[in-house]
Amino acid sequence: MLSIIIPTLNEEKYLPKLLRSIKNQSFKDYEIIVADSNSKDKTREIVKKFNCKLTKGGNHPGISRNKGAKMAKGDLLLFMDADCIMHKDFLKNALNEIKTKNLSIAGCKVMPLSKRIDDKIAFSIYNLWILSTQFFYANASGHGIFCKKNLHNKTKGFDESIKLSEDMDYCKRARKHGKFRILKSVIIYTSTRRFDNYGRFNTHLKLLFSAFYRPIFGEIKSNIFNYKFDYKK
Length: 233
Prior knowledge:
With 233 residues, the protein is of the alpha/beta class. Helix content is 41%, strand content 21%. The chain has an eight-stranded mixed sheet, sandwiched between helices. 40% of the residues are buried.
């Protein structure tokens, strides 16, 4: 069984879209676990409406993902962000590729739910980067990471002391114990709310600097980039 783990904080606008896209999947052997960080909107009501499992999250996505994983019954985990959606054969195609390539951990290409050309170009550059580095430096975002549960446990999950790029660190550490690849058969689609709320130039610059910072100085354990995970409604 596949366990899909979704961290949430006030996600009433986006979560229903993701849950509907999961419920419409051609692959059905899954459970959905939502790790909620005390949402003040209707997020918890939505979780119950869609018959998902609910657990308490933390003040950072990595903490929430770890709490969701502890509750998971599946032997394969899928970590997703709440503002994503996927096409109906996403799970079927992804799981077939994971099985065929004998992968223990896998990331996904990501594209924006946006008609803006600059957004599409930026995400295409990101996809090219993670594809070109996958054989020697594992990178994947929390939009979509598959990982075998025994590997998740072996690596002790996400490092909860990291403030930014904990998903990248997770893949880097897990790769030491299992085969990692970026899946070619599927794409996850995500909102551009972070760029809409905090500015495209500013957000891209922070992400670019953090990508160069980590290999040189190590994981980001202080909020030096002032990167925000709480989104304006």
